[in-house]
Specification:
Layout lengths: L6 H14 L5 H21 L9 H13 L2 H10 L2 E4 L21 E4 L4 H5 L2 E6 L5 H16 L3 E4 L5 H11 L4 E5 L12 H10 L1 E4 L9 H14 L2 E5 L6 H11 L3 E5 L9 H7 L4 E2 L3 H8 L21 H9 L6 E2 H8 L3 H13 L3 E4 L2 E4 L1 H7 L7
Parallel strand pairs: 3-4, 3-7, 4-5, 5-6, 7-8, 8-9
Antiparallel strand pairs: 1-2, 2-6, 10-12, 11-12
Helix pairs in contact: 1-2, 1-3, 1-4, 2-3, 6-7, 6-12, 9-10, 13-14, 13-15, 14-15
């Protein structure tokens, strides 16, 4: 692996490093920034003195890994599985991942036909609890389907619970979805989602930082979340307890200046406690895809106004509404009393009262006027006076 600027040498060096260096290692990321991927790979191959920031013991561990790395074989295995390698500077590389600085992936293994760079331009992360409730699964699937129908790519982690529901919602709507794995993309995890991840690879993209065949670990799951956050315009959290890994994604999104959103749940639900904590901070409350798009979309992509049902009295002229509002709820009143309450002349009040009688809102009681029973039900939603 000699030769600094040769694309083939760069490719082999970065493939080599994905087998040696753990995802998100900022010390190693600084080495690559300062020495280049080829230079770092050469130092690890030679097994010389440790590079800055690593103890002798840690450096020896990296050198031992380097001795077992076979980048040419990894590329051959990947090609056999329909997987390609995309690295910084390549045409397909999503520039938004550069926001991670020295924690930027060394490269990504990509399974699926679409362009990762193009899909990242209009993507939203939907993440949440693995052990979610039926409500959480329903909200994740509905949100993802709505986003897909609006032309947005749904990104998640391929896990059980909210992740799986989000992927299925997008696929069910005939939309685009990306699964970001914490293991080799040729070895779906969890095993129970093999069929789902295969379907995602057929219709969308499955991506990850780990070399073919690599297995997940708890730390790799956590570090994987920064890629989900950086790749997308915003992150929606659907159900998350206080210690949920999805909150790591949300906080990474906040640090990167991405939009952070949360779907509220019952105040008594421990599975929504983490989401509610986010909503008490900088996260925005959302309940459907339109509200998500209003946050992450372009200027003018607004959610529709939310209003209650239009009541018949809402269609009255303002003057008639004022006169109607001036009538007491439980007794008759004279035209003069009503006129004073409506702040209008008595003649105007009488004209309005006859108009309201024709519409069924009021009735005459001797010299006074009174609300009809139907008007009282309309005014208080059928519950009587509050």
């Amino acid at each position: 692996m000699s030769g600094g600027d040769d694309p083939d040498h760069e490719l082999l060096a970065r493939v080599f490093l994905t087998r040696v260096i753990e995802p998100g290692d900022e010390v190693a990321g600084r080495w690559v920034r300062e020495l280049g991927a080829v230079g770092v790979a050469r130092r690890l191959r030679s097994g010389g003195d440790a590079l800055p920031g690593r103890s002798g013991t840690r450096w020896a561990g990296l050198v031992a890994r380097a001795g077992r790395a076979e980048p040419e074989r990894d590329l051959a295995v990947a090609r056999e599985a329909g997987v390609r390698f995309v690295w910084p500077g390549a045409v397909e590389w999503p520039g938004v991942l550069d926001d991670l600085g020295d924690a930027r992936p060394l490269g990504l293994w990509v399974r699926g036909r679409p362009s990762l760079r193009m899909w990242a331009l209009r993507s939203v992360a939907v993440v949440g609890a693995r052990a979610c409730t039926e409500y959480g699964a329903h909200m994740a699937a509905t949100l993802a389907a709505g986003l897909a129908e609006r032309g947005w790519v749904v990104v998640s982690g391929g896990a059980y619970g909210v992740d799986g529901a989000a992927h299925r919602g997008a696929l069910g709507a005939g939309g685009a979805t990306v699964a970001v794995l914490a293991c080799g993309v040729d070895r779906p995890y969890p095993r129970g989602h093999t069929q789902l991840i295969t379907r995602i690879a057929d219709q969308g993209l499955v991506i990850g930082e780990l070399a073919p065949g690599d297995h997940p670990t708890p730390s790799r799951f956590i570090l994987r979340n920064r890629v989900i956050a950086a790749l997308t315009r915003g992150t929606v959290v659907v159900e998350a307890a206080y210690r949920s890994g999805s909150l790591v994604t949300a906080r990474a999104a906040q640090r990167l200046g991405r939009h952070t959103m949360g779907v509220p749940g019952p105040a008594t639900s421990g599975l929504s406690a983490g989401v509610h904590e986010l909503l008490r901070g900088e996260a925005v409350l959302v309940t459907d895809a339109a509200e998500v798009v209003e946050q992450v979309g372009d200027i003018g992509e607004l959610a529709p106004d939310r209003r209650g049902p239009v009541l018949p009295r809402d269609l009255l002229e303002p003057g008639a509404r004022r006169v109607l509002a001036a009538l007491p709820a439980r007794r008759a009143a004279t035209a003069g009393e009503i006129a004073r309450g409506a702040q209008t002349a008595e003649d105007d009040a009488i004209a309005r009262l006859y108009e309201l009688r024709a519409l069924g809102y009021v009735e005459r009681h001797g010299d006074g006027w009174k609300l009809t029973r139907q008007a009282m039900i309309s005014a208080h939603g059928g519950r009587g006076e509050c």
